[in-house]
Design brief:
There is one protein chain. The protein is globular. The protein has a six-stranded parallel β-sheet, with helices on both faces. It has a two-stranded antiparallel ribbon with strand order 5-6. It is of the alpha/beta class. About 40% of the residues lie in helices and about 20% in strands. Strand 7, helix 8 and strand 8 form a beta-alpha-beta unit. The N and C termini lie far apart (about 45 Å). The chain has a single domain, classed as Rossmann fold (3-Layer(aba) Sandwich), CATH 3.40.50.970. Helix 1 crosses helix 3. Bound molecules: magnesium ion. The site of magnesium ion has 7 residues, from helix 5 and strand 5. Magnesium ion binds next to helix 5 and strand 5.
Length: about 190
Amino acid sequence: MNRFDLLEKLQESLKDKLVICNIGLPSQELYQINDQPNYFYMLGSMGLSSSIGLGLALSQNKEVVSIDGDGSVLMNMNTLATIGNRAPNNYTLLIIDNGSYGSTGDQKTFTNEATSLKEVAIGSGCKKVIECNGEDTSKRLDQAIEDKNNSYVIISRINSGNVSVKPIPIHPISIRDRFRKYIGLVPYL
Ligand SMILES: [Mg+2]
């Protein structure tokens, strides 16, 4: 299973959740699969999906799912410590670990070698850390969201590989404003 297949399978789980999606092909694939106003597509700030989602979960009560990648988490591992110590129970970090920097040509990341994001998350203080394969991910994500007493980090180990997708045609301000509207916030002037 590759990332596109996984994102397709997760659509029912992500319904009505506040979803922050990693920059590049993950966001473009998610847009192509099923564009929704509760999906916030990152157009910059590589590595910060986990941080943006964490702040969002801390500031309101709806369920938040940050979709991040192995390459992005590797470049912002310090946020795992903040998540381990401060994440509220309405926050789930889903790391799609395909062992590669997919958006730049599938160069291998260190999760192919000695680095375990599961062990890093546990060592960072995250108490509910699940590593699973792509087939089990939707079930594990549902369980994480249904558990109102814990925050979760899920590492979904899948194959590398991308599909051909186009850039997201929505203006960044429109992505921001429709997401704010979905949360119930007034648009910026
Ligand atoms: Mg990756």
